[in-house]
Amino acid sequence: MQTFILTLRCQDGPGIIHAVSGALLDLGANVLEQAQFTDEESGLFAMRTRFEVESQGGAGQQASAIHEAIAERAARFDPVIGVRAVDERRRALVMVSKYDHCLVDLLYRYEIGELPVDIPLVVSNHEDCRAIAERHGIPFVVLPVTAETKADQERAVLALVEEHDIDVIVLARYMQVLSDDLCSRLPGRIINIHHSFLPGFKGARPYHQAHARGVKLIGATAHFVTADLDEGPIIEQGVQRVDHADTPESLAEIGRDVERLVLARAVRLFAEDRIVLDGSRTIVFG
User: Which residues form the catalytic set?
Assistant: First the structure.
């Protein structure tokens, strides 16, 4: 048996589930996991189904046949459909600058099999994290960037995405703002992590600003990158309670822990096809 994940989104209407389940029944599939949601504000219907079916040839060819069968049955709903064999893992390009905590965590989870992705390479604008990537046997590519070379550097990133058949770019504390052009070329395919406070503190030394204001909660937000800086659809968030005894240094230490956990969760959700875009929001199936 071969296991597949089906994702589907379209405008809500009667008969969608009947159409999909009928197609799966015709294929002899056995449903293992099913989740669905209708956004009553936008009218969007989203569904994620994990199922098994008797293996017939290559997984890619079989996924295409399943896609065609479901698309034919559900054609009147004009759905966006994705079908992927679970064994064919998502491929992630990780980008990092000098802060290494998120990179170290992702590569550790990847190495022990906790993160179901393939990471064919790590890209950075600095040399600092080379040893970390190479210790895990992953090629490390340095693409320096300045204001004058930004366009060329991003073209090189896009070439690597194409060359390595990348599904998602993970910004593991990559401290460069991506251009509108790059963001528009990869919608829903770039995940970023940043600190998140109540209230928010922007600019340099955010933990010193937070300490000066006596914050009681700090946290992190993982989101898809869009042309609107740090305003893309949110995937995952985490918070940690702090108090007056914390120093800027201890706040930063706690913040790093939250960032690691939240980013890993977001990447795993993407890897398991649990995220559906709904305009400026996301539907996340647990």
Answer: 230
